[in-house]
């Protein structure tokens, strides 16, 4: 298969709430297997952009294209529902606050969607749950409820839940921001494993060290625009834009201190 | 206090209590149905349904249940609705409590963390699937206690049908006062029986709530 188009393509993305413009004509492409970090101050629009990719926060203008198919198609309600559910099955998402289903066991959190949407058998579901949970090191907690897990464990289960749908693309919305510092590493480890497996990932993060370590490209956003983008070595060590330098001075010094 | 009188009449009060229980069960079931329909309408995508749901709630919560009952039972025949007193009691009070239950159910559904539905939709579940599998199971747990409050109110509310001569507990008390002239004993006996019913139901609801509560 020859790829003529980028895997993920965001074209002229605009989003406004009334007169407040949150995203101002953003253009962005991500290649298959690429790992991209989106960084920037809060209110810069980075989470909004991420949530526009699976149309959770619909854009007010522009388009998102995944693997040749437009995600945010304007369709009549019923057709849109069908289309977006199809698209979302291919796009995994991990939230800051995990959003595990508290009334279901870890197993059922992982296999509910595959059972409902792919009609897999009980046996296949059990196998899938074991496989996905082993992958994030949570197999021994398969019969637990979310309330019995630590934050880091919850987030690992949330990642397993997203992966169980075998997505083409994973979105991480500040996946470690709500965690106690000592729990961040276990989640980062899981994300690193995914990186090694060449999962395409778009990661909104505040962790510069992780972004530098794992990502192929860093995108710095501020005020609803992409201010600067490039390989982490370039963006972090030789930022060209004053706004990037300003932001990094605050955040990297923090990271230097931690080291 | 005339204890002998109480011992003599209490079997009749027990029979009347059975009618009160029947009325309670039927009005609560009807109320739950109306409440579910009302909550569904109030949370609909369609403005017309939302309006209908809101109108239902405001009309039935905004007027006395007794007026609604009289309107149905005494006013009904004038517009071709012929119901016996028991039927009118069940329908009138059931639809009335349904308006309160609408708000209880709607409140529980919107109280489920927004991120829950979002996570379900992100996995590719349809609106209906995400409601059925993720939001509703959590909302049901949240609504047990507040529905318990509605149910408690409704059991006591069945006393209103005494006003249209349904022979339940309150009406029975009034009737025996007419023949014995002992209102203290008769109302006390009726009150104790209400208290027993309410206490048993309340314990049941607490038990159910503890059983299914999420940590």
Automatic annotation (TrEMBL), chain B:
* UniProt key word Membrane: yes
What is a single cellular component term in the Gene Ontology annotation? ATP-binding cassette (ABC) transporter complex
Q: What would be an example GO MF term here?
A: transmembrane transporter activity
Traced from the root, the source organism's taxonomic lineage reads:
Bacteria, Pseudomonadati, Pseudomonadota, Alphaproteobacteria, Rhodobacterales
Keywords attached to this entry: Amino-acid transport, Cell membrane, Membrane, Transmembrane, Transmembrane helix, Transport
Domain of life (superkingdom): Bacteria
Family indicated by similarity: Belongs to the binding-protein-dependent transport system permease family. HisMQ subfamily.
Protein name per Swiss-Prot or TrEMBL = Inner membrane amino-acid ABC transporter permease protein YecS
Q: Where in the cell is it found?
A: Cell inner membrane; Cell membrane
- How is this protein positioned relative to the membrane? Multi-pass membrane protein
Coiled coil (UniProt feature): none
């Amino acid at each position: 298969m020859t790829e003529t188009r980028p895997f993920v393509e965001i074209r002229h993305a605009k989003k406004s709430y009334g007169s407040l413009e949150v995203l101002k004509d953003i253009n962005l492409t991500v290649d298959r297997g690429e790992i991209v970090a989106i960084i920037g101050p809060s209110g810069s629009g980075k989470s909004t952009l991420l949530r526009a990719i699976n149309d959770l926060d619909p854009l007010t203008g522009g388009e998102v294209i995944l693997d040749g198919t437009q995600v945010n198609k304007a369709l009549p309600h019923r057709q849109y529902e069908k289309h977006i559910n199809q698209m979302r099955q291919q796009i995994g998402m991990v939230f800051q606050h995990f959003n595990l289903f508290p009334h279901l066991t870890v197993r059922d959190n992982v296999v509910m969607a595959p059972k409902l949407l792919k009609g897999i058998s009980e046996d296949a579901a059990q196998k899938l749950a074991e496989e996905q949970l082993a992958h994030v090191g949570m197999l021994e907690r398969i019969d637990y409820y979310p309330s019995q897990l630590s934050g880091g464990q919850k987030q690992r289960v949330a990642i397993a839940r997203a992966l169980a749908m075998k997505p083409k693309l994973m979105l991480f919305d500040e996946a470690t921001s709500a965690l106690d510092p000592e729990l961040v590493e276990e989640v980062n480890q899981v994300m690193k494993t995914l990186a090694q497996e060449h999962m395409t990932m778009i990661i909104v993060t505040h962790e510069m060290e992780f972004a530098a370590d794992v990502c192929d490209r860093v995108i710095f956003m501020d005020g609803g625009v992409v201010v600067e983008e490039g390989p982490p070595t370039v963006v972090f060590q030789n930022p060209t834009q004053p706004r990037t330098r300003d932001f990094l001075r605050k955040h990297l010094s923090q990271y230097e201190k931690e080291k | 206090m005339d204890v002998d009188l109480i011992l003599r009449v209490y079997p009749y009060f027990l029979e009347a209590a059975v009618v009160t229980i029947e009325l309670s069960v039927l009005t609560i079931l009807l109320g739950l149905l109306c409440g579910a329909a009302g909550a569904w309408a109030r949370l609909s995508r369609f403005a017309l349904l939302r309006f209908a749901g809101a109108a239902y709630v405001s009309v039935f919560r905004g007027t006395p249940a007794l007026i609604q009952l009289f309107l149905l039972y005494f006013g009904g025949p004038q517009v071709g609705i012929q119901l016996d007193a028991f039927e009118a009691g069940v329908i009138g009070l059931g639809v009335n409590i349904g308006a309160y239950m609408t708000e209880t159910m709607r409140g529980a559904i919107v109280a489920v963390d927004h991120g829950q539905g979002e996570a379900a939709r992100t996995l590719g579940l349809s609106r209906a699937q995400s409601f059925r599998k993720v939001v509703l199971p959590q909302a049901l747990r949240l609504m047990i206690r507040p529905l318990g409050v509605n149910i408690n109110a409704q059991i006591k509310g069945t006393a209103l049908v005494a006003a249209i001569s349904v022979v339940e507990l309150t009406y029975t008390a009034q009737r025996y006062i007419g023949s014995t002239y002992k209102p203290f004993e008769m109302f006390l006996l009726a009150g104790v029986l209400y208290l027993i019913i309410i206490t048993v139901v309340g314990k049941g609801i607490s038990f159910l709530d503890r059983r299914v509560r999420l940590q």
